[in-house]
Amino acid sequence: MKQKNRSYLTDKKISIVVICYKDGKNIDALYTRLTKVMKETTPDYEIIYINDDSPDNSEKILKELASKDHNLTVINFSRNFGGQAGFTSGMIQSLGDAVILLEGDLQDPPELIPDMIRKWQEGYKVVYGVRRKREKSLGKIKQEIYHQFYILFNKMSYLNIPLDAGEFSLIDRVVVDYMNSLPERDRFIRGLRAWVGFKSIGIEYVRPERYDGGPSVATKGILSGFRWAKKAIFSFSYKPLEIITYLSLLMTLLAFIGIFIYISLYFIVGSPQGFATIVVIILFFAAIQLLTLSIIGEYIGRIFEEVKARPRYIVSEIINNHRKQKINEIHN
Predict the structure, then answer these.
(1) This prediction's pTM
(2) Beta-strand (E) ranges in 211-331?
(3) What separation in angstroms does the CA of 214 have from each of 23, 59, 189, 220, 282?
């Protein structure tokens, strides 16, 4: 219910979408900070918590909070579908004039929300957080690796995606509706956000450590980071396929040069000898072929997932379903 006789930053409805996975120890602290910020910012807000089948006691904690706060909606997934599916479900569920996305580990500070809203009021449709520094969560080498990946990704992608910007952002309802209308299953939110376009701006912030001290998504290991990098590159870049073309042309040129040299040596010194040379050449071309097949396979795998057209996620329960209530009010 809207409160009166009080000065707020905005009177628009704001939706906050929070992803929860192994964040049971963070929920109370984030909820307290988030509600404090929102009560001082707008008279009309909703918090949508997506429990991505967290194996801890997150569901129990969220249910208790939702029973006391009607502004809190809890979406429980039937199994773990990943953060991108979680953010997607929250955006579809949301009713706000603007939607704010953030992680549930308190590495995305809720206190930055008023600054985002001010930029939104200036006319920006997307306001994203730019992680210029991380508090001890990553070593300097890893930080530099992540930064260089964003640079490489921007060079390879056909989109201009902001450097060091994650999902933490405020997105206007117009942009949210366009993003929700996109049919793809294998989603990369920050890429889709850039693809839709509209006027956007970044706000720099220092990303703190996880509140509970556990590992964040960004620090779970090289293999996890490699999978994330593949998802980003193969979803928004055709450069790998272009590289195959250029590589094929180069190998063809080298083959012709090799044939010319071989024929020349045959007439000058006789047939060239050397078993090791043949083995090296065979292994080299075999490696090129396997690399080519692996790149093509990445794209085919994504096509396979899209063609199956399975749901992006399955919801087992929604607590405080305001969207359903809204639909019922319209029909009545």
Answers:
(1) 0.74
(2) 315-319
(3) 9, 19, 24, 10, 47
Question: Which residues partner with 77 through β-bridges?
Answer: 315
Three-class SS of residue 232?
A: helix
The rounded distance, in Å, linking the Cα atoms of 51 and 130 is: 25
Enumerate residues 6+ apart whose C-beta is below 8 A from 60.
Answer: none
Query: What gap in Å lies between CA 295 and CA 135, rounded to an integer?
Result: 36
DSSP string computed for 6-55: S--S--S-EEEEEEESS-TTTHHHHHHHHHHHHHHH-SSEEEEEEE---S
What beta strand segments (E) does 44-150 contain? 45-51, 72-77, 98-103, 126-134
Torsion-angle region of 47 (φ positive above 0: left; ψ -120 to 50: alpha; else: beta): beta
CA proximity to 127, closest of 115, 138, 137: 115
Residue 164 DSSP code: T
Nearest-angstrom CA–CA distance, 19 and 52: 7
| Tens-place pLDDT, residues 106-164 | 888 999 999 999 999 999 999 999 877 655 555 556 566 665 666 666 666 666 777 67
Give the orientation angle of helix 275-308 with respect to helix 222-235, to 10 degrees: 70
Per DSSP bridges, beta strands 98-103 and 45-51 are unpaired
Token reading at 322: 């305001």
The DSSP-derived string for 266-310 is HHHT-S---HHHHHHHHHHHHHHHHHHHHHHHHHHHHHHHHHHT-
Name the burial class of residue 20, with classes exposed (0-12), middle (13-18) and buried (19+) by CB atoms within 10 angstroms of its CB: buried
**Number of other residues whose CB lies within 10 A of the CB of residue 328:** 10
Q: What one-letter code names the amino acid at 22?
A: K
The pair of structure tokens assigned to 226 is 């490699």
Dihedral sign from CA coordinates of 231, 235, 237, 242: positive
